[in-house]
Amino acid sequence: MGINSTYWSSRQQVVATITGDMHNKFIDQFLSTANATFTNYNMLNVFYDWNNNPAQRKEWMHGFTCADFDWVAFDVLYKLGAKFNYNLAFKPHKNYMNYYAKEAPNIVSFDDPQHHQKIVNFFELVEFKFKSMSFPELMLELWTLLQGDVYLRYNNDYYHVKLHAPFINFKYVPELLPGEAKYRKMLKEFNNNKSTMQ
Q: Rounded to 5 degrees, what angle do the CA atoms 48, 99, 131 make?
């Protein structure tokens, strides 16, 4: 049967190879519990700032989207022994939708009179009202909103986020596959040793 090459993009490529046993363990040990483990979709991450080096990003809260699920699945497959192809023509990328905050978001109670109506107003705007606004009205409302009270629902809690410039943005960046950093380091050491032997 194979992969439907007319459905997926032209960038489709084989990222890893697994055995039937790995596949069965992936289904049994990971997918069977994934819905209970990953219960909420959280589109937004909260960072103090962005750095293209993941180790140097200051992150307050990590979102969880379908793309994050893919990367968790890659990690599980790697631990099961999947053989990843680290010489892909197109490096796998990950998307990030980010808020930027001066400090860690504060958990607030939905029932707190200081926050209740602000939470309601915020989510009414971002989930419903924007659909009936003109583009200029929406941009003005978003700009006003980003200057004030922004809330984030994370799992079953609400957080108040105090934003700072650039407030919000989207990033689409290449990411290392599981085990790739180790592979690249070993390859570099091998090439260095090879060149000193000549």
A: 170
pLDDT at 186 over 70: yes
Average pLDDT for the chain: 86
Query: What letter represents residue 110's amino acid?
Result: F
Residue-range domain boundaries for the chain: 11-100+166-193, 106-161
Q: What is the pLDDT of residues 65-93, one digit of tens each?
A: 888 999 999 999 999 999 999 998 888 88
How many degrees, rounded to 5, is the angle at CA 26 between CA 25 and CA 32? 100
Q: Which residues contact 159 (CB under 8 A, 6 or more apart)?
A: 46, 61, 105, 106, 107, 108, 151, 152, 153
CA distance 173 to 168: 16
**Cα 54 from chain centroid (whole Å):** 12
Number of helices (H), then strands (E), in the chain? 6, 9
pLDDT band for 111, please (50, 70, 90 cuts). Answer: very high
Q: Tokens 């009202």 map to which residue?
A: 129
